[in-house]
């Protein structure tokens, strides 16, 4: 076969456009996303979309000894589901949740987020839809969308393919910062329910449900009450404001964001030496999607629990005397919550271990 011809006319030199990068499309994407991004602001934001750097005027007189917290994350292969369904309005919510829910673990209030979107080919409407989701998430979290970057990568990514990541910055007073050394034996583990898979374990979920079980994304699933695609694209719950409400109303010691690694590994990260955590599986029933993955893929329980959140998106560690107040706060905020277990003094050589006890009902 003869070599494929490029798009430039005979005699014309190579150009950025002929190499696959459309600068004009990039500018149209900025114009399309601007109204969405501008809605996700805070009074401290200076300037607008389109500058070289985002500017945020930190009001230092509000703090005695401020500590800045930073977190960077993405949403993994969940983007493959969005691309397969050509539905891009919720991926931004996932991105914000993964970033700000890490920030709030130490008690930090999210201040602003910046996003990075890499695409095979810039489609302004698609970029605007993704950014709208990010802006919506920032509004839910109470932080500003302080700008971002869209990069077109022809030859590296196919047209229609994209990936997203984000970096967020938060702030907390040094003496109010939540740290593992505040956790004590006798403290209670309070679970905050997840909205589904959130944004972890999608490589396994896709392998089981799409490759092994060969379930269509558009197919209605009786156990879910909607399609498989809708279940897999359920947005990650954003806990930031809920956690901040708990810190204001209770003596919460620490939070654990349950992401990759599951309950045990993420809880271990927020325990000091000398204590263990006991999680009672019998206190909740994971959503049907978890059972479906386990049964259709014959996935062992240990693998499920170290890959997925199993229905628990965040854990608050707090004194036993504050449990009723914490449950009241979360109920008022429409966040499902329950007592998950407790913190105990370690026995023998055990240090910072999480013991998973019992079985899930009806799982």
UniProtKB/TrEMBL annotation:
Catalytic activity: 2-formamido-N(1)-(5-O-phospho-beta-D-ribosyl)acetamidine + ATP = 5-amino-1-(5-phospho-beta-D-ribosyl)imidazole + ADP + phosphate + H(+)
Residues of the PurM-like C-terminal domain: 184-349
Domain PurM-like N-terminal: 67-172
Biological pathway: Purine metabolism; IMP biosynthesis via de novo pathway; 5-amino-1-(5-phospho-D-ribosyl)imidazole from N(2)-formyl-N(1)-(5-phospho-D-ribosyl)glycinamide: step 2/2
Subcellular compartments: Cytoplasm
GO cellular component: cytosol
Enzyme's top EC category: ligase
CDD domains from the UniProt entry: PurM (cd02196)
InterPro entries associated with the record: PurM-like_C_dom, PurM-like_C_sf, PurM-like_N, PurM-like_N_sf, PurM_cligase
A Gene Ontology biological process term: adenine biosynthetic process
EC number: 6.3.3.1
Pfam families found in the cross-reference section: AIRS, AIRS_C
An example Gene Ontology molecular-function term: phosphoribosylamine-glycine ligase activity
Swiss-Prot/TrEMBL keywords: ATP-binding, Cytoplasm, Ligase, Nucleotide-binding, Purine biosynthesis
PANTHER family to which the protein is assigned, alphabetical: TRIFUNCTIONAL PURINE BIOSYNTHETIC PROTEIN ADENOSINE-3 (PTHR10520:SF12), TRIFUNCTIONAL PURINE BIOSYNTHETIC PROTEIN ADENOSINE-3-RELATED (PTHR10520)
Family of the protein in this entry: Belongs to the AIR synthase family.
Name of this protein: Phosphoribosylformylglycinamidine cyclo-ligase
Lineage start: Bacteria, Bacillati, Actinomycetota, Actinomycetes, Pseudonocardiales
Gene label: purM
């Amino acid at each position: 076969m003869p070599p494929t011809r490029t798009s430039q006319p005979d005699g014309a030199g190579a150009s950025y456009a002929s190499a696959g990068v459309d600068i004009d499309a990039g500018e149209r994407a900025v114009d399309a996303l601007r109204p969405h991004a501008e809605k996700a602001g805070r009074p401290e934001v200076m300037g607008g979309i389109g500058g070289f750097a985002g500017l945020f005027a930190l009001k230092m007189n509000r703090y005695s000894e401020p500590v800045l917290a930073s977190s960077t994350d993405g949403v993994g292969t969940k983007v493959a589901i969005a691309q397969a369904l050509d539905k891009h309005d919720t991926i931004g919510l996932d991105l914000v949740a993964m970033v700000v829910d890490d920030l709030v673990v130490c008690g930090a209030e999210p201040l602003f987020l910046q996003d990075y979107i890499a695409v095979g080919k810039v489609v302004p409407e698609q970029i605007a839809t993704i950014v709208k989701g990010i802006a919506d998430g920032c509004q839910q979290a109470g932080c500003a969308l302080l700008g971002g970057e869209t990069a077109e990568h022809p030859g590296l990514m196919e047209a229609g393919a994209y990936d997203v990541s984000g970096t967020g910055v938060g702030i907390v007073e040094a003496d109010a910062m939540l740290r593992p050394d505040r956790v004590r034996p006798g403290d209670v583990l309070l679970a905050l329910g997840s909205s589904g898979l959130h944004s972890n374990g999608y490589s396994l979920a896709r392998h089981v449900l799409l490759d092994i079980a060969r379930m269509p994304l558009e197919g209605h699933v009786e156990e879910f009450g909607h399609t498989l695609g809708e279940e897999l694209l359920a947005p990650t719950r954003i806990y930031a404001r809920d956690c901040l409400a708990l810190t204001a109303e209770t003596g919460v010691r620490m939070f654990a964001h349950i992401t990759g690694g599951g309950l045990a590994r993420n809880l271990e990260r927020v325990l000091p030496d000398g204590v263990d955590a006991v999680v009672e599986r019998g206190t909740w029933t994971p959503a049907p999607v978890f059972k479906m993955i386990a049964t259709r893929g014959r996935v062992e329980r240990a693998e499920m629990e170290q890959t997925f959140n199993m229905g628990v998106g965040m854990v608050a560690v707090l004194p036993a005397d504050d449990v009723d107040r914490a449950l009241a706060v979360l109920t008022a905020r429409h966040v499902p919550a329950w007592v998950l277990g407790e913190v105990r003094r370690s026995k023998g050589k055990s240090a910072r271990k999480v013991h998973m006890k019992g079985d899930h009902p009806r799982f």
